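Re: the pair you flagged

First of the two:
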Amino acid sequence: MNKVIGLIAGSLRKESFSKKIAKALISMAPHGFEFKIILIDNLPIYNQDFDDYNNAPESYVKFRDEIKNLAGVVFITPEHNRSVPAVLKNAIDVGSRPAGKNVWDGKPGAVFSSSPGNLSGFGANHHLRQSLVFLNVPAMQQPEVYLPHIDKVWDENGNLKDEEVRNFLQKAVGAYIEWFKKNSTS
């Protein structure tokens, strides 16, 4: 049975670079693993009242169950104002609540960040890592995955055309699988 690794793209935009990266990663899953895109676009903003009054939206229940059933997770994020996009932070919060029911707990993770500019989502990458420490998600340290000029690596159909980027992503996937094997409890 394959180990399922969730790919979470931290952007809602239809032509999101994070979503394109996630799609490119699907085919890079090695034997024994499956990469699955986990959608976060239908999660209402987290409100503790939902959990306090046993009235969690169905989308929360489905999302939490999906994350519980993953063996690991790769977060793919752009940068918004030197931090993670609100939609990604919301998904993290939804999965970490209610208190004591953190569905992220212990799942080996990785952070891939990108931007059209030179900084490659550095601020978002590191802010996300701060949250992952609290959630007990061991995050792959090397290689660090920062993808600059991400707007220039796709063809007109949204497929990855840049072989250097493809090779780097394949190397990062290989490193993540090794990281997963060393840190997985499943």
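Second of the two:
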Amino acid sequence: MKREIIITSDGSTTIHLPEWNEQYHSKHGAIQEAYHVFIRNGLKYVDVKNVSILEIGFGTGLNCFITLLEAKKQIDYVGVEAYPVAKEEVVKLNYVEELDADDKREFFEKIHEVSWEEKHKIASNFSLTKRKQFFTEITDENSFDLIYFDAFGARVQPDLWTEDIFKIMFAALKPEGVLVTYSAKGSVRRAMQAVGFDVERLPGPPGKREMLRATKVSSE
């Protein structure tokens, strides 16, 4: 499938798939979307001492890099990706420049260079494990405080937004754990609710009216 590097509305890059008319991040602003959905409504919302994060769709590493930049606590980050981004694409991404983070460039490079299936210390307060697997293969239970659900949209990959997938997500979260996603589709919200999540609609990032945040409410 053809892949193109494009510039989004906030000046940051993303990868575009013309055949699907889909991209890895919002065309209205890749960095703006990452901050709004995953940092402001995810990382900064979760109130725990040390944060364990599961990212569904590691992709370009943008969410991971921004989380590292914003980390005020110890972060244990697991990124799941079935189809890793190629090295020649990574070097064309302008996130370091657009985030004015040239002093942290080594961290962005390290995020992409470290081996898969092993835990690595990227910074003093940030560890990363990249796992090459399909989302249906995730078997973690009660392991994460926060899930960044950043799969391709339900329009092009509806099988990634089903009750079966959200059962896996629900199981992977610790009690009171939180899942955030850019999607606000009614079918997605209902699938989350069907497996036990308490779901709230929140204002969306630029270009989207709403997003969703789901909490694994304790059954006790």
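The helical segments are 30-43, 62-70, 87-90, 95-98, 105-113, 163-172, 186-194.

-B.
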